[in-house]
Specification:
Blueprint (H helix, E strand, L loop, with lengths): L12 H8 L10 E3 L8 E6 L2 E10 L7 H17 L7 E8 L5 H17 L3 E9 L9 E10 L14 E5 L4 H10 L1 H18 L7 H10 L6 E7 L3 H13 L2 E5 L7 H10 L11 E6 L4 H10 L4 E8 L5 E4 L5 E4 L7 H10 L4
Parallel strand pairs: 4-5, 9-12
Antiparallel strand pairs: 1-2, 2-3, 3-6, 4-6, 7-10, 7-11, 8-10, 9-11, 12-13
Helix pairs in contact: 2-3, 4-5, 4-8, 5-8, 6-9
Length: 355
């Protein structure tokens, strides 16, 4: 016990590389892609030219959203990670470690909404565990694991991005942080955006998913035929996601900050939160690398699905850094992510009862 309080959110990449990555149980030859920075899903070889894609993530309740919306959000957070492999999710394993204050009626509401959303996503729940335990709260009420099967010749990982690929970002920055802010403290946000702006910010909740983004992009083709890598910006925001992708592929990403979409709603929400919109929670934003000849086709496919997107830069030779061209001139070379400011900001809003 050091007496020091560790920061909330995902652990630092250095701690992952030092503590987690070297100790992964037994080595098995069929594991093609295991845990690594910037990689949200594993790939396991099944034989016969088929692979199993697997991912896992926490389940949570955001009280400001309610149980139904929180359940739907949890489904999409996990399904989005699997879809970044280019493989559709098919099966789920769900574990609930429920807080004592979540009664039977709350659980029923959450579960029925979750089951309905899994059905819409084409996912069957095949196993799990449910219990209520002291010491748990709504921030994390359990975890879900989602799996799908695809062709060995057609899965994607962030490591597949290579120099010359173009970088596309969908929707913009701070998607999830903005949506939650609009439901958590609409009066504060309304003072900056007005009533119509709050309505637009609340509507972003329906965009906190990259399932549709991935579906649209991979229809064009994968690997040399189109998309080479997909990554969703979650904790750490868009810049954190870009840096994770750079580290995963071992090349640099050269990106122009001015090209990265930032909506007035996201800017205002992050001003109220006191967070940097480029570095904060942005589930719903897809980062894609695409072969140059297919960029126009991928952007058109996203537009046909009514998903806004922008080409923001390219993959260039390097060692896993983010080269960020600033609007005022000059370039920053980023090699380490910043801590996501969202979790302490959210906790402050809860503690101070923001409206």
């Amino acid at each position: 016990m050091t007496g020091l309080r560790s920061p909330l959110g995902k652990i630092a990449p250095g701690q992952f590389e030092r503590v987690i990555a070297p100790h992964l149980g037994a080595e098995r030859s069929e594991v093609l892609v295991g845990p690594r920075a910037g990689q949200d899903s594993a790939i396991v070889k099944l034989g016969g030219g088929r692979v199993l894609a697997v991912t896992t993530d926490p389940l949570s309740v955001v009280p400001a959203l309610g149980f139904e919306a929180s359940a739907r959000l949890s489904c999409h957070l996990i399904a989005s990670d699997l879809w970044t492999t280019g493989i559709a999710p098919a099966w789920a394993s769900i574990t609930f470690n429920l807080p004592p204050q979540m009664d039977d009626a709350d659980l029923e509401t959450y579960w029925l909404a979750m089951s309905d959303e899994w059905a819409r996503l084409g996912v069957s729940v095949v196993t799990g565990h449910t219990g209520r335990y002291a010491g748990c709260d709504y921030s994390i009420i359990g975890a879900g694991t989602v799996m799908g099967v695809g062709e060995e010749s057609g899965y994607l990982t962030p490591a597949m991005a290579s120099p010359g690929d173009r970088v596309i970002v969908t929707k913009g920055c701070a998607i999830e942080a903005t949506a939650i802010a609009a439901w958590l403290f609409p009066k504060r946000l309304g003072a900056k955006l007005g009533p119509e702006g709050v309505v637009r910010a609340r509507a972003l909740l329906g965009q906190v998913s990259v399932v549709a983004d991935c579906r649209a992009a991979v229809r064009v083709g994968v690997r040399e035929r189109g998309v080479t890598a997909l990554h969703d910006a979650t904790e750490g925001g868009v810049l954190g996601g870009l840096l994770e992708l750079a580290r995963a592929c071992g090349h640099d990403l050269a990106v122009e900050r001015a090209r990265v979409p930032l909506t007035p709603e996201a800017r205002a929400a992050c001003e109220v939160f006191g967070t940097d919109p480029y570095w904060t929670l942005s589930e719903g934003t897809l980062i894609a690398t695409v072969r140059p000849a297919q960029v126009t086709a991928v952007l058109a496919a996203l537009a046909a699905a009514e998903i806004p997107a922008a080409e923001v830069g390219e993959v260039v030779p390097g060692s896993g850094a983010l080269r960020l061209a600033e609007p005022g001139g000059g370039t920053s070379r980023l090699t380490e992510p910043r801590p996501d400011p969202y979790w302490p900001a959210y906790q402050r809003a809860i503690d101070e009862s923001w409206e």
